[in-house]
Amino acid sequence: MNKIHQFAQEYLLEWFPDLGSYQAFNNRLNRISCVMNSLVETLLNEFVPKVYSRNYSVLDSMPIITCSGKRAGKIASEITDKGYCSTKSMYYYGMKLHALGFCNTGRLPHPEQIIFTPASVNDLTLYKDTWSEIENRTFFGDKIYNDTAFFQNMNQTLNSEMLTPVKAVKGMTDVLKRFDRACNDLYSRAVSKIRQPIEALFSWLIEKSDIQKDSKQARSDLQKD
């Protein structure tokens, strides 16, 4: 938010002559936060790419860390809690950004929906609660979305399926693992290649917004207030 205010102060004062201080700017944004969902939805619908597929989607989540899991979280405690990030192999306090996007060959996926949850919310649980009733869709996710029985039923009732890298089966003998390895590795690499653009989307969001530096910004805002 500080960078947005600074940019407006330097380049947009003719448009916003009553911009005011950063603290006032931040408070105003907080008061209209309920409007942002509708605004983002309108923008996503207005800027749909000319070429993309509504039949194929990628999905994933990324952490928004407000403090290390070694300490008790104090920032925005009403919307944050403790979770685990397998990619970073760490516990943390904060939120998760969950994204569902249409595949867009050779480009970043076009977001269909972005949802924020406390850090403890499981990705598969969020999918089941929010996106599991979408019909005629092929989803590409990581291993956390692996639930064979659930997705078999979804495929039969909604003609939708979830494709994920192959997850190891507990108790499988080494002989069977070696027997299936070549096929499983090839399949897993294919799925991972298709879903890789959503990781690029997260990298783009981090680069443009510094969203994963939320802990530093939040502490700075509290000190200013």
Automatic annotation (TrEMBL):
Would you say which domain of life the source belongs to? Bacteria
Which segments constitute the Transposase IS4-like domain? 58-205
Name of this protein: Transposase
Native organism is Flavivirga jejuensis
* InterPro entries, A to Z: Transposase_11
